[in-house]
Design a protein that fits this description.
single chain, mainly alpha, transmembrane
């Protein structure tokens, strides 16, 4: 039974790592300036980058800080903290 659990955990962490890699590639692709031209601020790109930052930080906290197996109050608290943090970052940018 422990072997199955370890294999399941290993697969979950590998999937999380692949997800993080994918989000990183999408973040890089969204960044302006790949064409060598000067670019200005863009609200849609910034909002997308902040959403991707939220997703990445949630994956890291859940899978690499072992919060996915923690008590429900800790999972909810970390999710609430992330929502407040990224909402504040977005609010500061838009203000």
């Amino acid at each position: 039974m422990n072997t199955k659990l370890a294999l399941s955990d290993s697969r979950a962490i590998t999937a999380a790592w692949l997800g993080l890699s994918a989000v990183t590639i999408v973040s890089w692709w969204l960044a302006p300036g790949h064409g060598g031209t000067q670019s200005g601020p863009s609200v849609p790109i910034t909002v997308a980058a902040i959403v991707l930052g939220f997703v990445k930080s949630r994956i890291i906290i859940r899978y690499f800080m072992e919060v996915r197996t923690a008590p429900a109050w800790l999972r909810r608290s970390t999710d609430a903290w992330l929502v407040m943090l990224w909402t504040a970052v977005l609010g500061i940018y838009l203000w």
